[in-house]
# Entry
Amino acid sequence: MSINSSLEYLNEDTDNFEPYIANSSIVSTALKNQMTKLQTTISELEEIINGLAQYAEG
Amino acid sequence: MIETYYNDEWVDAKVPQVDNGDISEYLQTVNALKLRANALKNSIKTASANLAPTAGSAPSLKKVYNGDSYATQGGCTDGTYIYFYIKAQDEANAGTFVKMNRSNYAVDSGNTKSLSLYHGNDMCYNPDTGYIYVATMYQTGGTSRIDVIDPSTLTIIAQKYVPFYASAIAYDSDKKLFIGASGSLTKNIFKLNDSSDFELVRTTTVSDSPSYSAGRSSQGITCDSAFIYHSWSDVPNVYIEICDWLGNYIHTISKSVTYDDISMEVEFIEKTSKNELLMGMYGAGQGGGMAYIYTMTLT
# Structure
């Protein structure tokens, strides 16, 4: 997965989920998937930040 | 300190824990994760722009090798030796692999070897395995061949394939990640998995690469914990394009490089310390298997 494209969904409007909130299983699955993607992305971003910190201190 | 580059969003992006499956909590968590990711993304861009080197010392070349095969291509260093490949004029034939003392540029007896590395365009040393990985530029079925060399015996111990076009390769031992690049906007981040096979981790797109849009020739790459340095040539000009690991283009260091009125072409590039780049060069169209070293001090 491209980290650049994976970041595109950061701009998606989470409010889109609101009309479907009655169907909680669909919504919770979609949100869980999004959470997983975001957590992976954040781990990668944190790794990049750590590399910059290491460079700054080196 | 890197915290200097964190913005206010970072402080606010605390992520609540979901513990009962409640939709509103999921929404709250996703929104908080998005805020945190965006804050990190912005912090990376700001930190990279402030930390990257902005200039390099003027060319001062040393001719280090004269006379095997045809044209110097990829190279790398393990700190003690510089390894490089001089391809044959017909790259289907074997060229010469050279193991040179970095301290005095001498080549000890037995430290050249006839190997078939195809174009042998770039290589990197992986201190975790102790092997050299060569981006041969040999392609088949949408894959590119990476040859693995044992530097102690100068033998090819494996030939592996990556699922993308790789003309250049670098390795970061802190992240345990390789970078595979070509002349496109994309850099592929990959790793060795538990079976010692290559596994693509992600791709990073340097969407505003001026070198790509200018049609320069893509050459070797190198990296450190913070940045990726991609060399490009438009003889006699050498361009060192710097981006971060997220693909943010930072800027380019450019030099016009000649030696005895011969226009030079950069072939490989190695980050040897925080402030030093070692570049292997070749006289464009010169033939004769000559190699030159340009050590650039970064500021």
